[in-house]
What we know:
- This protein is of the alpha+beta class.
- Helix content is 32%, strand content 24%.
- It has three domains: 77 residues, Monooxygenase (Up-down Bundle), CATH 1.20.1280; 175 residues, SMI1/KNR4-like, CATH 3.40.1580; 103 residues, Immunoglobulin-like.
- Helix 4 packs across helix 5 and helix 6 packs parallel to helix 12.
Amino acid sequence: MEMEIVYLDGLGDLCLHFIALKLGPKDTAVLACVNKRLRDSAYEDSLWRTFCEKDLNITDAPHDTQGNQTQSFKVAYQLWRESFSMYPWPLVKRVHNCWATLKNWLTLHFPQASHTLQIGASESDIKHLEDKLSVKLPLSTKLLYRFCNGQQLPHHHHTQLGSPLGLIGGYYFYNHLVNVYLLPLSQVIAKTKDFVRHLGFSSRSKYIVVAASSTYIEKLFFLNCITGQLYVGTNNLSTDGEMMPCVSVPPINQRDAMLLWLEEHGRRLQTGIIHLREEAGNVPRINLFPQPPPLCSTAVTNGVQIRASAVFVPELSNLQEESEKYWFSYSIRMSLLSEGHIASRTPLTSCQLYWRHWIIRANDVVVSDVDAEAVIGKVVSTPASRWKRIHI
């Protein structure tokens, strides 16, 4: 039986298009070097639009790394590859997807905060930081700053309440208000030098400050540039530099700790585990108290909905004291549902808390039992909120 030989350049345009999709961008570029017929097919911009969409989430208009529009998707892809040629391409795609998730959520839900994100830093900017602080940033951290150089908060927000626009967000209970933002490289340099000078840390420790609370309550995040692990300061930070790791990963993955931290934060925002809540002067902020079950418990009694959740407070934790080792804050939110509770055939439009009984358990052990008159709350038409701190 005689078989017919069909050469690659003898195939139709549609077949060549699907073959190029299977080959991927790198091999498609090689295919274009064979002859004019294959080059014309490999240069088809709809093909490169697919590559841009798959690798870089670029779907609307082709653009370079700084957002400037390019003449084609092929040119856009080429500029991206050239700009990040010193980095592993799978890592570039991963970091880009991380920032795409965060920026898309901010654009949809918190545009005021999205406007604080700065354009990516240059390689020379990163080199300047490394020279100033005598460190070498992990590759994934460099890429995070290449795509976005932290946040530049409005100057008029630098008050005791801080800026509400922190990407990482925080929580509020009693007079404890935290709202964390990502530092741009210039502030990383300044705050790291200040940290080394005031806390007596050795300049050879290789810790840099990458995120901080904009409020008067101090909460600092540190990156160890040698191991790549990310840490947050505890209550003993100012006295002996005590920190705890933010990401639990095997040593082989520690150099991506900051990236893992931001990826998890983006996942929680995207899935609705955390979202915006008005607090501290009725200003919306990203609030870290979990919203959906099982991280948030909900019960309805006589038309009143009770929601309870807790968040870890590392800056109040003390790893040297067993009784105060880990601190948490809990949030109790109460609201009268729209259908209300019908008493004496009359729908209720309001209700009042006159007594509360909180039983706080940790590992099935009661650590706090509050049975007393009602707490002072906020009287609003939407669910009232009140925070209280506990420790285990």
